[in-house]
Design brief:
The protein is an alpha+beta fold and about 775 residues long. The chain contains 28 helices and 28 strands. It binds ligand C2E and calcium ion (CA) (2 copies).
Length: about 775
Amino acid sequence: MAYTAPDVPADERERLAELAALDVLDTAAEESFDSLARLAAYICGTPISLVSLIDAERQWFKARVGLSVTETPREISFCGHAIIDPDRIFIVADASKDERFRENPLVTGDPDIRFYAGMPLKTGEGSAVGTLCVIDRVPRELTAVQEDALVTLSNAVVTQLNLRRRLSRHEQYYAMLARVGAMIARITDIESLCSEACHTGIELGGLRMAWIGRLDPPSGNIHPIAWAAWEERIAEPMARSMASDPLQRALAPAIAASKRPMVSNDLTIDPRTGASGIRRRHGLLASVALPLTVDDVLWGTMNLYAGRKNFFDAFYLDRARELAMDISFGIDRLQKTRDINYLSFHDTVTGLPNQAGFEDKFQTLAPQIHCGCLLAVGMEQLDQVGAAYGAGAIDSVLKEVAQRLQAHAPDRAIVALVRRRLFALFVPEEEPANFSRFATQRLAEALTLPYSVGDEQMGCAIQLGASFYPDDGETIGALLTSAERAIQSARNLHQMFRFYNEKTDETTAAQLRLEGELRKAISRGELTNYYQPKIDLASGKIVGAEALMRWLHPERGLVSPAEFIPVLESSGLILEAGRQAIARAIIDFCTWRDAGLDTPRIAVNVTALQLCDGNFITDIQRNLAAAMCNSAALSIELTESSLMTEAPLVMDALQALREIGIVIAIDDFGTGYSSLAYLVTLPIDELKIDRAFVIRMTTEPAYMGLVNTIISLAHNLNLKVVAEGVESGAQADLLRLLRCDQAQGYLYSKPVSADVFAGMLVSPHQICNPA
Ligand code: C2E
Ligand code: CA
Ligand code: CA
């Protein structure tokens, strides 16, 4: 037959290696590529569009629209021609009139190609691995705008291919090694080192489970000291039960003797797994035990498990050995420095860090934080205690103070005894207003309770002074000086507590004033709900509403939540304000429903603090019952960042909400750092893409790719996707093409009062114009 087979690019070998490294050939269809192909066909107005990859002998389609075959010989491919010039779009206006293609079977027979335009996909340095192409059965042309779009979309395909590769296993593995390396330099105790190494293995190493055990030389047993698993709950019990089963007991002496990794690439048939099918039951199909050695003696083992047979190939084992050596090195270093460190950085009576230890911990923390508060606790009377009761009495009071400080300090605080008469406490990311409340209420109360010395109870006067990082000092030394000055001025004013500088004193006062006003506003019912509709992108109908809080200030008018929500949160007033907001939402829902309107579910914004409140769920249930409403009335929105804090309590509350049928959405998605591995463990139903992404999506291909990825991943996890802040028709069109479920934004309506919203439910078509 007379047609021209495509040339082979000069760097064909490198090109094929690049394609192989993408690890994409013969993989299943993925929505993120399908939707880009759909977009290309839609924009160019062609019946066919393909993401085609040129393998040695064939072209294989990662995505296809309007074509049923999955591959064709390379010899007859159009895309084979297109990739010869990787930087330019390749266009055949009418194949039946083109010598190179006239008798090509794809032209003479099915699919009867006449028009072809393909933009090469250049993922690496050299030639292209394939194309994004559009095909028509009639001759035609592309407009300049369509050509531009094809180029833009092909960039998005490249972004997507690279993203996919980045997530692929080998890359992950190097990332894991790098992370462990950094960890070893940073971490100061062996337990955290081991624990972080295990977690890194799960997150980046593609593993199902990992644990590290320490050898107990007399018995030869290995005791787990750190663990991580895909399902965190089961990690510890599994590690413990595996550590004591026959396979593991046989392993320890073998590893101790050989100091080499012990691999089992098929645990279903490994005779050493014995009768306990625990590994198999949890889908652990391959394992490797790596020796951790210190001074050439076995210290313990790191045990990795994968969910796939033959997972630990030569490449992985090499890297795993490097990993084990890194961890061994870290353990060695930490053991040797531990003893010296402890003495130079701690106070021996209380066990708290001394000033050097305090500074050391602060220096580790400082680069990661924006601000914080330091509190100095002065105990001038201690000398009198010593004089009256002996030196031992001073020690027991110091110990008691240390315990009380540790018991009441927030989790992330550093507590120290910087001098014999001076305790200090540093709380990161803390604002003065909040901190003053904490110091004068919780701490002062705890520290002024009587102390027991021998059989006696005695009081001990204390003075508190605080300083604010970084305004009042950037080092511990400077912050302590400021805080001690504050103690001095507290003493002069016969107060128990002072903040260092006047400026912070002022902001504290302003905040406290606003807090007072808000307290009144809540009791007078000045807070109200506005509502913004959520629109179903396919039908254009209102399918939800978000309740957004407003303050109807008697003088200032409508105050936006940006101004007062932070104060509500830091003061704890959000508990009452949030309770009222939910009650109002339920009442409004019932009013609309009882008026015969087609009333959608109302979403209420909720903070982590509310979720952790023991009464939160019973309050909701009581309000629903009082209004004779069921859980279909309500959903809640939680920001990604609030999901990252206080995880266990939040998790329990989410589970309980789920059980009573309340839909849960993640708000502002994309602005936090939650990993997808973490997301899938949460009981959530909906994901709201942050406005920032929606804005950039229409102008930056990388953002469009990202939104596309978020949507397809969310759909894979069975989550509904809502786009926030949609302001233009173009954004809505693109979101519809990307199969986003719902949209919310000024395009449809700003948040409005309950009455106006009810009007929208009466005549929805006047407000939202579906495409
Ligand atoms: P959010 O939950 O992310 O709410 C969306 C915000 O985006 C709202 O601001 C809304 O008015 C605004 N918005 C919606 N569509 C568009 C658009 O197309 N363009 C632009 N530029 N903005 C749009 P708002 O009402 O000022 O609320 C701000 C934040 O205050 C909310 O962010 C939420 O985090 C918080 N908030 C509001 N009400 C409550 C509440 O009852 N409880 C709690 N805890 N937080 C609330
Ligand atoms: Ca929200
Ligand atoms: Ca939001």
